[in-house]
Amino acid sequence: MRTNLNKPRTGLRSWLLVTGLAFLGGTLLSAKELNVYTHRHYKADEEINALFTERTGIKVNVVSAEADQLIERLKSEGANSPADLLVTVDAGRLQRAKEAGLLKPLKSEVLEQRVPAALRDSGGHWYAYALRARVILYAQDRVKPGEISNYEDLADPKWRGRLLIRSSGNAYNQSLLASLIAADGEEKAEAWAKGVVANLARPPQGGDRDQIKGVASGLADVCVSNTYYLGMLLNSKDPAEQAAAKKVTVLFPNQSGRGTHANIAGAGLTVHAKNAENAKAYLEFLTTPEVQKLIANGTYEFPVNRDLSLSETHKAWGEFKLDEVTFPQIGRYQEQAVRLFDKAGWK
Ligand SMILES: [Fe+2]
Fold this sequence. Notes:
Layout: H1 12-23, H2 26-31, E1 33-38, H3 43-56, E2 59-64, H4 67-77, E3 85-88, H5 91-99, H6 109-114, E4 127-139, E5 163-164, H7 171-184, H8 186-199, H9 208-216, E6 222-226, H10 227-234, H11 239-245, E7 248-251, E8 262-269, H12 276-286, H13 289-298, E9 302-303, H14 312-317, H15 330-344
Parallel strand pairs: 1-2, 1-3, 5-6
Antiparallel strand pairs: 3-8, 4-6, 4-7, 4-8, 4-9
Bound molecules: fe (ii) ion.
C-alpha cells in the first residue's frame, strides 16, 4: 500500500487528535515528543517524520550534524541531553557510541522480528533500518563483466590511473577499510590502501556521485560508491546526471566470498532518553513495510526487511549477498582504518 504524504489530515481520528491536543496542558504535550540527533539529511526523512507525527501525534524534533559531532555533544551534555535517539549512517559510529556508554538497550519483539540479527546489536543498543551497499561501478564500454569482482582487485596494478574513490575522511571509506582489516588482516589491508592510492586517476575529491560522473566522463574506468547515490543520479531531474548514471554498471563485490560491504542507516536509544516509548514507536514505524518502501523509493537505500519487493531501481541492480562476516567488527577497526589511510597517503 502506498501512502500519499500530501494527503490532507481528514477523518474523525485525526480530528480528535488535533482537537484533543489543542485542549491538553503543556505537561502531556511535552511527552508527545521525540528528540532525534541525526547524521541524515534527506527530504524523504522529513516526509516520513511528518507521517509519523500525523499517525501518532508525536512531534519529531531533529538536530542534524556529523555523527562524530553528535557523539561528542551527547558526551558533553550527559544527563542533561535532550536526545532520545542517535541516528547515524554507518554501523561503526553506533558501535562506538555503544562502547562509550551513550546508548541503552531498547527491547522490541517487533524490531527483533523485522531487523535481521546481523543488522542489529544483540543487546538492542541499536538497530539498522536501511542499507546502502558500497559497490564497485565500471564503465560499460571500457570494462568487461568479470574483469573485476572483489574489493581486493581495486589494488591490482592493472587499474593504474583508472580508479576513482573519495577521501579517507569519509565514514563510508573508513568502514570499508575496517571491513578489509577484519577480513584480510592489517598487513594486507595496508597494502590494499597503498595499491588503491597508486591506482587513482586523480587525488580524492568530491562525493560518491562525483566518482560516478568521473567514470561516465572517461576520467577513470572504475569507481566505488554507495548504491543509493547511483539511484539518485538515475532518478535525477537533470538529464545529464541520468545519462552519466546509465554509462556505469553496478558490481556487487566479493559475491563468491564474504559478500558485499554495506553501510547501514541505524538508530540507538540514548542512555538518558526521556521519551523511550516514543523512540521505540518511531523505530518500529520506520521498519513497517509501508515506511520501508517509502525509504527505498525516497533515498534508494535497501530496506532491511529483505522480504519486501524491491523498487524498479533496486531490481535493475539485482540481488546481492551481504557481508555479515565483518559487519559486527567494523566499529572495532575504524580507528585502525584511519591510521592505515594516513600511512598509505590516502588524502
Ligand atoms: Fe551519504
